Amino acid sequence: MNEQTRVTIAGKSYPVGHKNGLPQVKTDGGLSKTRFREYRDCTIRALALSAGIEYSTAHRIGRDAGRKRRCGFFPDRLLKQAEQSDIKYSKLPDSQVTIEEFIRTHSKGSFYCRRSGHAFAVVDGIILDNVRNTPRQKIKEAWEFIPSTENNVCQADSNSVE
Asked: How much is the pLDDT for 155?
């Protein structure tokens, strides 16, 4: 029996892969459970995963903030709109750390991270994203989400896998 880390996203368990030395789970953030035909939606996926909300809720927040479908969007505007929907977060001090350093220092909690041209979520030290990230990429900004009991969609745990 191997001890393998798994992450549960919206009730479905996924094994954590170690791509490029980073613990990562490839996920669409719940897009496949909706009827949306989206792309260029990394900000919406990252919001859904880091805040622990459904993709459709995150999509509505993006729309209310002014995001057009299939277009990139600014995290600041998206998160201000999320705050109006009672989603609590706090911005971390700008430090320009690498993804590898960020995961090492933030092994617990739920984070919305932005690197150049892309947003992704880090939940309990595991990257949740639909693209591969590398250890040396720099995180430009990060926000920590305050957990909410009713929105706990994502959680990481360690299970023994046979």
From this structure: 47
Written as six digits, the tokens of 25 are 């789970």
Q: For 76, which DSSP code?
A: H
Question: With contact defined as beta carbons under 8 Å apart, do 7 and 13 qualify?
Answer: yes
> What would the two tokens of residue 39 be?
């792309």
Q: What percentage of the chain reaches a pLDDT higher than 90?
A: 53
List Cβ neighbours of 63 (8 Å cut-off, separation of 6 or more). Answer: none
Q: Say how far apart CA 128 and CA 106 lie, in whole Å.
A: 14
Q: Where do we find the tokens 């990252």?
A: 46
Closest CA to 47 of 65, 59, 35, 64: 59
Q: Is the pTM of this model over 0.90?
A: no
Each residue of 45-74: pLDDT tens digit?
Answer: 999 999 999 999 999 999 999 998 878 888
Alpha-carbon distance of 3 to 51, in angstroms, equals 28
Token pair 């996924």 in the structure block, residue: 14
DSSP state letters, 16-41: PEEETTEEEEE--TTGGGSS----S-
Work out the mean pLDDT of the chain and round it to a whole number.
83
